[in-house]
What we know:
single chain, alpha/beta, UDP-galactose 4-epimerase, domain 1, 2 domains, 7-stranded parallel β-sheet, 10 helices, 16% strand, EC 5.1.3.2, NAD, UDP-glucose 4-epimerase
Amino acid sequence: xxxxxxxxxxxxxxxxxxxxADAGLASVVVDDLSSGxxxxxxxxxxxxxxxxxxxxxxxxxLREHGVVGVIHxxxxxxxGVSVQxxxxxxxxxxxxxxxxxxxxxxxxxxxxxxxxxxAVYGTPDxxxxxxxxxKRPASPYGESKLIGEWLIRDQGIATADTQHPLRHTAxxxxxxxxxxxxSVYDTSPHNLFPLVFEALxxxxxPRINGDDYNTPDGTNVRDYVHVADIAxxxxxxxxxxxxxxxxxxxxNLGSQNGLSVREIMDAMARVTGIDFTPEIAPRRxxxxxxxxxxxxxxxxxLDWKNRYTVDEMVxxxxxxxxxxx
Length: 325
């Protein structure tokens, strides 16, 4: 009796695999290693090197490993790049999710936790993003995640009166940082933490894109949440599904307060011991002043909370990156 983690060789997925094990739940990983790393999969966890677009492969994996539920993270997650590669984004995120749902139906697997994104909201002009806010994604990536939620919702409706009705929830979050295991770190070429880490390692000065936003210190305010907390929320959702307990269709995993880019930079210098003054570059087009989500529903149902300070987020991420050499 296992959980399939699609994208389980990635930064977030590998943490979820470890959190499942800590909760006494077995897992199996499917990942095509387009952005994941086989060495991130813990020893003893079955690993299938393949794509969720291969419906037959996913179905055989579900059957072979006695899978009772899926935590679905596999996809193309780079919002900025998705503007240049919309067809690839839709193939991976929309067709990939449709393929997975087809395989789940064929194998009579009826529990699904979907890794969605707060990108479904676009750039909302409100202090705190709530789940019922209108969805106005601003990139093909955000659109693909919203369509994924629709696909899952519609499959749930279609199977409601069958022997194996699909039970599901979606978790929406922004910027995942830090590390819960010294052997797993964020390797994205687009995320703030790895960009700063690489600059410091290479002796370059990190950069802030714009310091004239309508925020207390002039830099963007964003939701930064620790990867271990994100992993714990996925496992809590999986356990509720297994127990037949009710879940909302979607939850925001938000920090409630947010952190500015300058606050992140200050913590980087403080924690790493590398003194630097970040360069100020021009704004990036379309970057809003502030995007922060509430996590009240998730706190109620998924024991969601922010257990790490900004310094701990930086310290755990920095240690894991330095361990990689």
